[in-house]
Amino acid sequence: MKKRLKTDVVIALCSSFTVCVFAPFEIYLSNKDFFFFNGFEMIPFSFLAFMALSLIILLLLITVMNIREKAHDAVLGVGFGLILAMYIQGNFLKNDYGTLDGNPIDWTLYIKEGIISVVLFVILEVIMTVLIIKLKDELFIKTIRTVAIYIFLIQLVAIVTLLIQNNGLNKESTYLATTENEMVYGSEENFVILMLDTYESTTLTRILEEDDGTYRGYLKDFVFYPDTTGMYRSTGFALPYLIGGVEYHNDCTYEEFLNKTYENSVLLNDLRNDGWYIGVYNQNRIPDSDIALKADNCKKLNLTVSSHRRLAGYMYKLVGFRYMPQPLKRFFWFYADDIASELRDTKEDVSIYGDNNFDFANAYCDMQIGDMDRSFHLYELFGAHPPYNITEDFIYSDIGTDKISACKGLLVMLDGYMNKLRETGLYENTTVIVLGDHGKEILWNPVFLVKSSGADHELEINDTPFSYAELQEIYEAISNGGGEESIKKIVYSHSTEDRRYLKFDNNTGIGKNDYFTADIYECRFSGRADNKDSLITTDTVYEQHAK
Fold it and tell me: Which pLDDT band holds residue 506 (cuts at 50, 70, 90)?
């Protein structure tokens, strides 16, 4: 009885350590750049979870032991087999299913991995059953106890190693975009860029083809360029490229790329030199250096979490996604960026900007004219990015919607924003560019629309081939007072189907693309950008070597 009780204590503590301490902290330390918060924030809830689970396991084993010793051994063996299988699943089998970027995982692509996962759990449970039957009771519980202690020591060494490699759990202060002057505009001239994540040109074309006039009315005074090519497949590089026009060729770290982008941005430099107010409102793409201060709304902040309870929920969802057998992983899937958008808080008396579409709509209700003469505002919005939760009437849906409904709802949001510009008296002197950073089905074909200052016409669809490589030139024309004809002239002057696109390999990682393990392939077009077959890969490859 004493030997069984000793083993029960070891199993309860070691199993709880694996699930409640090792798993979440290993995930955090292995992806520290992604998590905004200080790792010390996890200690209280992981300790409570560790103590609670240890007590539950111990009470269960003691209860069964008092009923029947052989039943106790069976429960002990089956339970330990399950924990052992989870440990192997989480650390040695496939756990990379692309980024948790809101796109549902196509599990049919991983049938083989699913079979291996299930077989692992079954084999270990069979082995434990055989050991229960074949081994003497004393030898069985001693074996279980020894293996548990061995795994605990391996995990302890792994955590200590990660702590050393990542300079502990602490996170230093970082530059972030605040909501300062989010909806405060200049009295003389304004330049606004609305970046709607994943809004694709072909989707808008389809909406307009089926339109009864409603959505064309929302887009009055805009010029729509459907034959547009972006440069990158996702926001991490597409948004900095929109700001600075600097290409990434696997020649530096991501942070160095952000610094280079802001430092060499024609847009930001010209606006700063000409005395514009500069507001860059995005969630995660700010350089972590003083260069971020080129945007007036960026501050260096110490971050914390708004709810430790919800943080615990997210972290243990990640644990479940990694450690559960593959058929159960789908029940632990979620959009990883929700961790930052829902929980990010600061100790300073400021509000951090988030990319929520509905928060943006609420914010523009308080639009006003400030004491600046000219202002520039760039807004990164969640846009048409999955998971879809916007109805056609721009109402949040708990049960989810689809891409077309979300894109229609965003046009309703845009109409509300443009009407608020009219109501505030800002419409005539404001240029608005609405663009996507990339597409969804056709990644290189984001939406691109321009409403110039003083424009007064119905929606115009311009089929001239256009590339984001010309954006900096367009920005310069707008900041120098150029109107719709100036923009069209630039587009026409570069009119060619011979445009470039830089294609990354598949996404990996918890919440962002691990670009630094991917080669970049240069592509060119053989026709219109909205044609899936128009992309041709050239011989130019930028091989991964940046760390």
Answer: low
Q: Is the pLDDT of residue 276 over 70?
A: yes
> Do 229 and 467 contact (CB within 8 A), yes or no?
yes
Task: Show the tokens assigned to 235.
Answer: 């926001």
Cβ–Cβ under 8 Å, residues 193 and 378: yes
Q: Which tokens is 60 given?
A: 């269960």
CA-derived radius of gyration, the chain:
27
For 157, residues 6+ apart whose C-beta sits below 8 A from its C-beta are none
The dihedral region occupied by 383, where left means phi > 0, alpha psi between -120 and 50, and beta the remainder, is left
For residue 515, pLDDT over 70 is answered with no
pLDDT at 545: 61
Q: Kind and range of the H or E element at 538?
A: strand 535-542
Mean pLDDT of 456-480: 94
Residue type for position 492:
Y
For β-strands 303-305 and 344-346, DSSP reports them as antiparallel
Contacts of 341 (CB under 8 A, 6+ apart): 283, 354, 355, 356
CATH of domain 174-302+347-471+530-542: 3.40.720.10
Tell me the per-residue pLDDT of 115-150, one tens digit each, with 9 for 90 and over. 999 999 999 999 988 888 887 778 878 888 899 999
User: 316-326: per-residue pLDDT in tens?
Assistant: 999 999 999 99
Distance CA 389, CA 100 (A): 17
Contact (Cβ atoms closer than 8 angstroms) between residue 286 and residue 36: no
Q: Give the C-alpha separation, 461 to 224, whole Å.
A: 5
Is 19 in contact with 154 (CB distance < 8 Å)?
no
- Domain spans, the chain: 2-165, 174-302+347-471+530-542
**Direct distance between the N- and C-terminal alpha carbons of the chain, in angstroms, rounded to an integer:** 55
Average pLDDT score over the chain: 90
All residues at 6 or more sequence positions from 206 whose CB lies less than 8 Å from its CB, including other chains: 404
**pLDDT over threshold 80, residue 55:** yes
What's the full length of the chain, in residues? 547
H-helix or E-strand spanning residue 537 = strand 535-542
Task: For residue 476, count other CB atoms closer than 10 A to its CB.
Answer: 16
DSSP state of 527: S
CA distances from 238 to 360, 383, 388 (A): 21, 14, 21
Q: Which has more confidence, 234 or 452?
A: 452
Give the three-class secondary structure for 384.
coil
Q: Using the predicted structure, report yes or no on whether residue 547 has a pLDDT greater than 50.
A: no
Reported as type and span, the H/E element at residue 145 is: helix 137-165
Q: What is the β-pairing status of strands 535-542 and 520-525?
A: antiparallel
